[in-house]
Amino acid sequence: MKTKIFTFFFFFFMICASALVAAKGSSEGAKAPSSITVYAYDSFTADWGPGPELAKRFTAKTGIAVELVSCGDAGQVLSRAALEKKSPRADVLVGIDNNLIDGARKAGVLVPYKPAGAEAVSPALVLAEDWLLTPYDWGQFAMIFDSSSKTAPPRSLAELADPRFAGKIILMDPRTSTPGLGFLAWTMAAFGNDWPSFWERLKGNILTLAPGWDAGYSLFTSGEAPLVVSYTTSPAYHAEFEGTDRYQALIFPEGHVAQIEGLGLAKGAPNPAGGKAFIDFMLTDEAQEVLPLTQFMYPVSETVTLPASYAAAPRSEKTPSVPSAEVAAAVERAVGILSK
To answer: How far are the Cα atoms of 141, 167, 326, 330 from residue 197, in angstroms, in the given order?
Structure first.
């Protein structure tokens, strides 16, 4: 009798355990395609950034939930993806730009994907023929000047090295920050092989090398220095939300290099179908219209109407460029100059 009872409970237990395993497998199978993980930089994922609204609209459209993970700046997005390369956690990487694409390709953390709507992207904004990255916005780097400062603004990029700007310039670290890397590219484009000499003259004028744009721009608006590297579109933010023209983008005769920001499908993504859907979505006007007043960059879609505040955002007709591989190769030298 005991044997029969034991046998009954043994088989009952095994049936229940099998059912639980099956249910768990079914639940995980259902959960996997219902969410994606997106790695991005701080200002993208912030409450005031585009990430939350984009995620909301994407989920409403597709039923796929979005987990936004802030990694610092875009350089740190790439670094984190490289560290997790053997066991990827992200489905989409956001913020890798035209100066980081060579590093992303070498790191092997992305797989090419040409999204729906790709034909609407201007050829000038396409980051790679194989669509390793999909462009979603763009802008021009510029020095932003606090006009309330008692210091007269510089009239050129070269003039930033003038001793009168000692301790009055905030830059970002080119190892971790895309604006930091963009500033390096800007000086390389403007001064060619003489860029290290310019950096030597400039270093005494740099108040700090912030780890990312958020930290550096916050120091600037707190009044720590009258000059910071940012974008020609930054004054549009202050015009829109603060109603002020205090902060001005300076247009220099050397021209202004462009930043084209992209997003890509992570290699080994847990949910590649969901990742592709998100990249497709980012090229729709429904997503693109979110960017001007959250990202304060130009959308890649030309059908999106810019807000009136963009009248405060000047553009340079001169847009020099430097191959991303050359910029990447110069990073350690630039940092070395500043650390002497």
So the answer is: 21, 18, 17, 13
CATH code, 90: 3.40.190.10
Q: Has this prediction a pTM greater than 0.90? A: no
Are 210 and 326 part of one and the same domain?
yes
Q: How far apart are CA 154 and CA 112, in angstroms?
A: 42
Which strand (E) or helix (H) includes residue 97? strand 92-97
The tens place of each residue's pLDDT in the chain, 340 residues long, gives: 433 333 433 444 344 444 444 444 433 443 345 999 999 999 999 999 999 999 999 999 999 999 999 998 899 999 999 999 999 999 999 999 999 999 999 999 999 999 999 999 999 999 999 999 999 999 999 999 999 999 999 999 999 999 999 999 999 999 989 999 999 999 999 999 999 999 999 999 999 999 999 999 999 999 999 999 999 999 999 999 999 999 999 999 999 999 999 999 999 999 999 999 999 999 999 999 999 999 999 999 999 999 999 999 999 999 999 999 999 999 999 999 999 8
Q: Is residue 17 part of a domain?
A: no
Q: Distances from the Cα of 54 to the Cαs of 142, 214, 244, 308, 335, in angstroms?
A: 27, 20, 28, 22, 35
- Tell me, yes or no, whether 199 lies in a domain: yes
245-249 own/partner pairs: CB under 8 Å, 24+ apart: 245/147, 245/312, 246/146, 246/147, 246/148, 247/144, 247/145, 247/146, 247/147, 247/221, 248/144, 248/145, 248/147, 248/153, 249/142, 249/143, 249/144, 249/145, 249/313, 249/314
